[in-house]
Amino acid sequence: MKECSWPSSDLMKLYHQNEWCRISKDDRYIFEMLSLEGAQAGLSWETVIQKRAAYQEAFHGFDIEKCATLTDEEIESIKENYKVIKHIGKLKSVRNNALIVKQIQDEYGSFSNFIWAYVEDEPIINEWKSENEMPAETDLSIKVSKDFKKLGLKFVGPKIIYSFLQSIGIIDDHIITCPYHTRNR
Fold first, then answer.
1. Confidence (pTM)
2. 1 in any annotated domain
3. 5 in a domain, yes or no?
4. Which of 7, 84, 98, 142 has the smallest CB count inside 10 Å?
5. Could you tell me the keywords of this UniProt record (predicted)?
6. pLDDT > 90? residue 5
């Protein structure tokens, strides 16, 4: 079977094989992916994935409660002392988004319940023959992006959200011949 060709490094291959387009309903993981996808804005996923361990350490494993209480000083310390992307707006968005995710959890029971409701708890399983067929955004990612922005979430444009939806398994975009495609597992 022919795998997706985009993973170029060992880290990317591991992510592709074990996480990408795999269903997750774990709020902490979903929040991590939202944060990392936001960090990617304007950069490559390769850059972010190489810094993932530093992000996990700096942001307490993406514990939503802890991220929501980070001070400006702590965020500045993360910028100075960790091998993360140094964009202060992206770093502050983790705290901002954690605060909003907490509100979503209070209202919907979990962040997972909220985000999976967009697809009525059923993943979108695409059947691309080629990676060239894959869109960068869709009507769904545009809608989720608009809704997220209305809630006050940061770094949630339609392309970022499309990648986010892939990362938590709402969308399976493995090419149909990839052994990691839902239909082949």
1. 0.97
2. no
3. no
4. 142
5. Glycosidase, Hydrolase, Metal-binding, Zinc
6. yes
Active site residue 19: no
The one catalytic residue among 15, 29, 108, 118? 15
Active site residue 108: no
Q: Which amino acid is at 79?
A: K
Task: Residue 173: give the domain boundaries.
Answer: 10-184
Choose the catalytic residue: 20, 37, 116, 162: 37
Query: Could you read off the pLDDT of 69-114 as tens digits, one per residue?
Result: 999 999 999 999 999 999 999 999 999 999 999 999 999 999 999 9
**Is 116 tagged catalytic?**
no
Confidence of residue 127 (pLDDT cuts 50, 70, 90): very high
Report CA-CA distances (Å) from 45 to 7, 139, 170.
10, 22, 18
Mean pLDDT value across the chain:
97
For the chain, the domain total comes to 1
Query: In whole angstroms, what is the distance from residue 138 CA to residue 141 CA?
Result: 5
